[in-house]
Amino acid sequence: MAEPSSNPPRLRLRVTAAAESAIRSGHPWVYDNSIREQNRAGTAGELAVVFDRRDRFLALGLFDPLSPIRLRVLHHGKPATADDVWWRARLASALERRAGLFDAATTGYRCLSGENDGWPGLVLDRYDTAYVLKLYSAVWLPRLNDVVRWLKEAVQPERLVLRLSRNIQPEAEAKFQLREGQMLVGTAPNGPVVFQETGIRFEAEVVRGQKTGFFLDQRENRRRVEKLSAGRDVLNAFSFSGGFSLYAARGGARSTTDLDISPHALDSACRNFALNAAAPRIVACRHECVQADTFDWLGAKPDADFDLVVLDPPSLAKRETEREGAVQAYHRLATLGIPRLRRGGILVAASCSAHVTTGEFFGAVQEALEASGRRFLELERTGHAPDHPATFPEANYLKCLFVRFEP
Question: Fewest beta carbons less than 10 Å away: which of 43, 130, 323, 350?
């Protein structure tokens, strides 16, 4: 990348022994309290070189003077030059890792998954011919023109939408005249974009929707639910736009009930069912929407019985201080969902809270299963889909448990 015309000396950092070890093991973050020496003040997005205690090259990363994650590591090991050719090769490598994962029946998936693909703090999702670029770190703001150029060459988007995490929106607008939801390529869509997932049509609100417009990360678990749904009455709690319900319907479910507190989400679920009016099994399935708080509804509906219950809440711990309360909430949610199962029924319990560990989540659900006095057979535990890899501990947010209530 070109440096400012004043050509200041390269930003050089030295870090603690613990941080050195973490970098060598592949961890992509260096926190502010891990930096021992810094030769000058740095700016957001500037390339910084980390040297070890023997003054040898250790790593190259993107610097952010205002974030607790002071450096987002791009490369460690032997010295490298992050020039245009290097960035293009890194993008091509990430896209190649997804080659062969999806056929023409799936036109919605993740192309770049942040640190896990070597693009820290940056996500790129595809929705048919529209792509959504979401930035979670200010390090990318001064580099956005280059990123757009590389993406236009590599994926040739018909539309490219910019989404910004809340923490960087003020800086993006004030310093770079960038705004949440603006079009980087093409014109704004007239409403949601329609894409396919395993042949099922969905809408994605790419400009203003949650995340990048849809929850692509649960695709593999939705596919599992489809295989388990024949002849069953299915409850999809925290249903959002009805993804699990549509797969269940195509799998031969007798009925599906979408339960969500948001009327907007339920309206989207109904539209998604309408998009699939040509699918006989989906049309044949009775679909109901219930607007309510899931915890309240489960606790007040002792007569509502189902053959398959999906409990997939939004993140219950957005920060570390909420972790303990989230673990308790997962236990309570499972405790409320278990009595809704008929004998032979299947419980699908999921968590997308990165601050809750795999052990804590599965432990909370397992305690609820044991306390119920019922006998359950564990069918499967799942994690991340292949287009959502998790290459370091903090990235491992998604976990899901499938169990059957034994007769």
Answer: 43
